[in-house]
């Protein structure tokens, strides 16, 4: 029986300039920028067996149908480019290293790992190399599963989307593009992300519903203007090593994202009181200690504390002493900028 089997590990990522609002087939209305994590990742094995049959998904070894609607929609979206996919029965075995739906981008690492597996099998079937084009295809396909997943195909700092008013090939909405390390000041080469798990549950409003509310948002034009500016400035600050400048962009992006949610119609709030408690404590602590530690938020209540590797012991002491009290069961994850996905044996 004709059979293909492949496994990939793919990271979650944290956006410094946020993707919020879509157009067309899951393209971002504004350019956005993230770095890929390391500890938070998904491991996925995909098996294609020639023959017809429903796709199955197993999470941590147990059959799980919850993800099938999104997975089937994803397969429908990539099948125009990958016709042969319909000749196979697909089994997916997957697990995350972090809680699903906790506001850590599980769909990003999940669809990145799945897209890499399927793009790899596509390359095998079509006798194609696993080159840059393969990665671009994987990023395009990952995007069709979940927008932010497009960025998780690469390690380091990653950009996705077009700058308003530019037709430069440097920018594309189809897939994400890694930012060369030579464009990143050494100060930021070993950033860390300590993720404070304020809430370990599924969030109340999905990101997809939140994105959709931007379409008729009263502040949409203002947001586009702001995101374009922040995207350009973020790249400049990453390059020139201006920590204070970068801090303002990162925190403003996080608060603007949540302000958009809170001013959508219908409006919703994903922050929790402890989200703000952490931010207040952080601001007071860093003022006192003159340290560079910056918060950002994803579409959830958790707080990502971005800091430099050299300060990691001080930050962890602060987290343990002053912040774990605001975390569910005192939980936090020490993560750092990562090298990107990996094919597994
Ligand atoms: C981001 N987020 O840039 C933004 C900021 C969360 C906050 O992209 O509907 O799971 O699957 O494309 O990518 C989360 O939304 O949404 C997200 P879909 P996705 O990381």
CA radius of gyration is 20 Å
CATH topology heading of the largest domain: Ribosomal Protein S5, domain 2
DSSP helical segment count: 8
How many strand elements?
14
**Overall helicity:** 25-40%
End-to-end Cα distance, whole Å, is 21 Å
Shape: globular
Largest sheet data: 8 strands, mixed
What does this entry look like structurally?
This protein is an alpha+beta fold. The chain folds into two domains: about 5-180, Ribosomal Protein S5, domain 2; about 185-335, GHMP kinase, C-terminal domain (Alpha-Beta Plaits, 2-Layer Sandwich), CATH 3.30.70. The longest helix is centred in the middle third of the chain and has 21 residues, at about 220-240. A hairpin with a 2-residue loop joins strand 5 (about 55-60) and strand 6 (about 60-65). Strands 1, 4, 5, 6, 7, 8, 9 and 14 form an eight-stranded mixed β-sheet that branches. It is built from eight helices and 14 strands. Bound molecules: ligand 2P0. The site of ligand 2P0 has 17 residues, from helix 4. Ligand 2P0 binds near residues 207 and 298.
In terms of topology, how is this protein built?
Elements: E1 3-17, E2 22-23, E3 27-28, E4 32-50, E5 56-59, E6 62-63, H1 68-78, E7 88-96, H2 106-125, H3 132-145, E8 157-160, E9 177-178, E10 191-196, H4 207-212, H5 220-240, H6 243-262, H7 273-289, E11 293-297, E12 303-308, H8 312-323, E13 332-336, E14 342-344
Parallel strand pairs: 5-7
Antiparallel strand pairs: 1-4, 1-14, 2-3, 4-7, 4-8, 5-6, 8-9, 10-12, 10-13, 11-12
Helix pairs in contact: 2-3, 5-6
The structure holds ligand 2P0.
The site of ligand 2P0 has 17 residues, from α4.
